Amino acid sequence: MLAFLVLAEVKKFTLAAERCHMTQSALSQLIGRLEERVGVRLFERGTRSVSLTPEGERLAVSARRITSELENVLGDLHAVATLEQGNVSLAVLPSLAAFWIPQILRKYREKFPKIRLRLYDVSSARCHEMVRLGVVDLSLSSQPGMPGEVDAELLFEEPLYIACPAGHPMGALKKISLQALRGIRFIHMQGTSKMMVRTGTEIRPVKQVLTDAGIIDEGLEVEHMATQAGLVAAGFGVCLMPKFSLPQFKSPNIRTVLLDTDAIVRPVYLSKRKGASLSVAATEFQDFVRKWVATETDTRLFRSNP
Questions:
Q1: Cα–Cα distance between 302 and 306 in angstroms, integer?
Q2: Is 209 exposed, middle or buried (0-12, 13-18, 19+ CB in 10 A)?
Q3: With 211 labelled, which of 14, 72, 191, 245 sits at a CA distance of 20 to 30 A?
Q4: DSSP classification of residue 98
């Protein structure tokens, strides 16, 4: 089709053959086969030049449009391949979305400023659902999900802390065990029942772990961590929080105490839809997160010191 368009433009077999890097005879045979295939003459042959027939004009209009669209598509694909354009969508736990993931997004945006980022801060269960349904490319959550539905890799394990009022006896400690929580009044976040933690070799819902440890449910269950911090500061009870939520609990009226990491940690999984191919931009982001975590691990940012 390219040879046809070149000949339609220059109107000379010799010049068209030269531009197509073929002999005049080969070009003439090519055009002849095309005319035979469509069943009509496409060119009127003269002694010095050729011109399009009405049928040839009709073909030329469509061929130019198709060629233009193909060039646009190829240009778009090249832009995607070189990360000049593209999209990455993420579902992330709110505790990670508040402080940790924005650092990664900022660095990624600095490196690839033309990639469009979409972020959803939702519960672990919702993270898993959005990946499974293909709403997002990737998720960061505490749930590995069902093996047949998502591909999940353990990215890191996050230490957990107890936030308590400044005057609470627990606030003077640096680290406590799960057993030390017996009889302590707790303020829960909505969705805590679906937050998963590792205790030894088991992955269990954290609310069940706390219940088994003997905590007292204060009956206050809130949606936002800022509300939870305010209730703790006001003395209504204590709460559980992951390490990357520590900045939200910086207050003269709150103390934070590390839970024994040998007894309990929160796994964080990087997940994608089972068997799904990621876009170039999403694949790059996936590798970007892995490298970021490897760097933070090397620099001890995942250690338990607040």
A1: 10
A2: buried
A3: 245
A4: T
CA pair distance 70, 27, nearest whole angstrom? 23
Question: Do residues 164 and 238 touch, judged by C-beta distance below 8 A?
Answer: yes
Q: What is the pLDDT of residue 306?
A: 40
Identify the pLDDT of residue 146.
76
Architecture of the domain spanning 160-264: 3-Layer(aba) Sandwich (3.40)
Measure the N-to-C terminal CA separation of the chain; round to a whole number of Å.
Answer: 67
pLDDT mean over 161-168 = 94
Q: Are strands 138-141 and 266-273 parallel, antiparallel or unpaired?
A: antiparallel
Pick the CATH number of 2-81 from 3.30.479.10, 3.30.160.20, 1.10.10.10, 3.40.50.300: 1.10.10.10
Assign domain 87-156+268-298 to its CATH superfamily.
Periplasmic binding protein-like II (3.40.190.10)
The span from the CA of 266 to the CA of 242, in Å, is 7
Instruction: Tell me: pLDDT of 76 over 90.
Output: no
Cα separation, 41 vs 3, whole angstroms: 15
pTM of the model: 0.74
Q: How far apart are CA 69 and CA 117, in angstroms?
A: 27
**Topology alike, domains 87-156+268-298 and 160-264:** yes
Tens digit of each residue's pLDDT (9 = 90 or more) over 175-207: 999 999 999 999 998 877 778 899 988 888 899
Q: For the chain, give every domain's residue range.
A: 2-81, 87-156+268-298, 160-264
Q: How far apart are CA 264 and CA 275, in angstroms?
A: 31
For residue range 237-294, list pLDDT tens digits in order.
Answer: 999 999 999 999 999 999 999 999 999 999 999 999 998 889 889 999 999 999 999 8
106: Cβ contacts below 8 Å, ≥ 6 apart: none
